Amino acid sequence: MRAKRTIAVTAALLGLTAMTVSPASAAAGNWKAYGNTNPITSSPHTWVCAGSKAVTTNVVAQVCAIRSASGGSAQGAVIVRNNQSGLFSATALVDLWSAGRGQMGIWECPSSGVGANSWSVCFGRSQSVPSSDPANSFGWAKDKYLGVTGPA
Question: Is the pLDDT score of 91 beyond 50?
């Protein structure tokens, strides 16, 4: 499976312990629809995101690491922005890790409809991570690799 190979290669490039993972071993993530409200600017938390990548015509996605407002926890997320005039079916996978704790989890959001001209976010579970241990994420949307975030 391409995702399994990509995760192992990405982990090796980032200096993490080599891992093999398949979506079957990923925990369930949760989709949240935001409509036309930008999830980053509407949040009290700090979002550190990789650049937006085209998933298909008029649909972009980006992976983010989110640090809680209190600083004591982090989570990974994949944002999908649908600029099409109709519903777009999206899947997402996000991996959260830190230098101090290594891999903290992989979450997969099953196929979900992202409304026309709107944002939806696939969230992984929030993890307790002290602010002294920055967290990063890498992820996919519709099997499109989205890159790696900076530390949050």
Answer: yes
Are 77 and 50 contacting, i.e. CB atoms less than 8 angstroms apart?
A: no
Distance CA 94, CA 78 (A): 7
pLDDT at 23: 52
Which of 147, 77, 68 has its CA nearest to residue 108?
77
What are the φ/ψ torsions at residue 76 (nearest 5 degrees)?
A: -100, 155
Say how far apart CA 62 and CA 11 lie, in whole Å.
Answer: 18
Which residues are CB-neighbours of 88 under 8 A, at least 6 positions away? 56, 59, 80, 82, 113, 114, 116
Q: What are phi and psi of 14, to 5 degrees?
A: -85, 0
